[in-house]
Design a protein that fits this description.
This protein has 326 residues and is α/β, with parallel strands linked by helices. The protein is 28% helix and 25% strand. Helix 1 (71-85) runs parallel beside helix 8. The chain is globular and about 55 Å long.
Length: 326
């Protein structure tokens, strides 16, 4: 297997290419594309599907009450995804693929740090449920103090801390890692209580150079809100009947802006199919490298546009990168 070596001055981007029927397209070369950075044409240095760069994958699972009906299916689908991305025996790994698991509701909690061991992730997935603060909010019992939680967690602010979960995964876990990096996020997309906002979460993903694959599942509370208030598009915000949270739109935006892909689980039974599709896409990605025509002397975001010369092909990659964090 070929080794892709990336110099400090080079930019590396994962690229997914699909035909008009939605199938992944193999056997493409750099000559099939045009590339620009900040509206200036660039020369593609390498474009290949073969690499021994490791996969760094994070599973982020919403365990709030609103999506509890899908939790058992989510555990099973997550387990199958782990099996597709990690070798059965870590000793058989050739490139150091690793994954981690975070769950979030009223709190963000790291259940399993980076590991190449399937069994550790399966164990945490099998036992995964609401955090202590989510449970106490539903029972009225005492809350667990912050000192008793993992240091990589966010304190109770109520609601579903989707943005905090993404920010923590990107900034504290992924940012210093090399390799091909992606987050897979299962949620109804309705953030309530995060310290960070949507742009903060996406900026953190950009700084960490990772794509986010989002799996949207319409939560029970959102269904009820739509039934009670037709046309609002979601749960009322702050008790204001005129405001709403469009979780589906938010999840789609997160995926689009980070070069990932949006999926909607129309029923909880198709989660395994979705996770299989994500694994297939990650394994079928190209990796592109190029050296910018101008040296990076700032800390600004540089917009990258990659287009296929064949108009029937759809190209997906990150929107760009921050200087010094390629």
């Amino acid at each position: 297997m070929a080794t892709l070596k990336v110099k400090a001055s080079e930019v590396l981007l994962p690229v997914t290419v699909r035909d008009k029927h939605g199938a992944l397209v193999p056997n493409l070369t750099a000559a099939d594309f045009t590339l620009s950075q900040d509206s200036r044409p660039q020369v593609i240095k390498s474009f290949s599907r073969e690499s021994n760069l490791p996969f760094r994958v994070g599973l982020l699972v919403d365990t709030s009450r609103s999506v509890s009906s899908a939790m058992e299916n989510e555990r099973k689908a997550g387990g199958k995804f782990v099996d597709l991305m990690l070798p059965a025996n870590p000793k058989d790994a050739t490139n150091g693929d690793q994954a981690f698991l975070i769950h979030f509701d009223r709190e963000v909690e790291l259940l399993q740090d980076f590991t190449d061991a399937r069994d550790k992730l399966h164990r945490e997935l099998d036992g995964m449920g609401p955090t202590a603060r989510e449970k106490s909010s539903n029972t009225g019992g005492p809350e667990t103090s912050g000192d008793e939680r993992d240091s990589r967690s966010r304190a109770n602010r109520g609601g579903t801390q989707l943005y905090d979960a993404i920010f923590l995964a990107a900034d504290e876990l992924m940012k210093t890692k090399d390799g091909r990096k992606a987050l897979v996020v299962f949620s109804d997309g309705e953030d309530r209580g995060s310290k960070e906002n949507l742009n903060d979460a996406i900026d953190a993903a950009d700084h960490a150079n990772l794509a986010i694959y989002t799996v949207y599942f319409k939560g029970q509370e959102e269904r009820q809100a739509n039934d009670d208030y037709p046309g609002t598009g979601g749960r009322r915000g702050g008790g204001d009947r005129g405001s709403s949270i469009d979780g589906k739109k938010i999840m789609a935006e997160i995926a689009t802006r980070t070069g990932g892909r949006f999926f909607e689980a129309k029923k909880k039974d198709n989660l395994e199919e979705i996770y299989n599709a994500i694994a297939e896409e990650l394994r079928g990605q190209y990796l592109m490298t190029y050296t910018p025509d101008k040296p990076d002397t700032d800390s600004e975001f540089h917009k990258v546009v990659l287009k296929a010369k064949d108009a029937d092909l759809t190209v997906v990659t990150r929107e760009g990168y921050y200087s010094g964090e390629k």
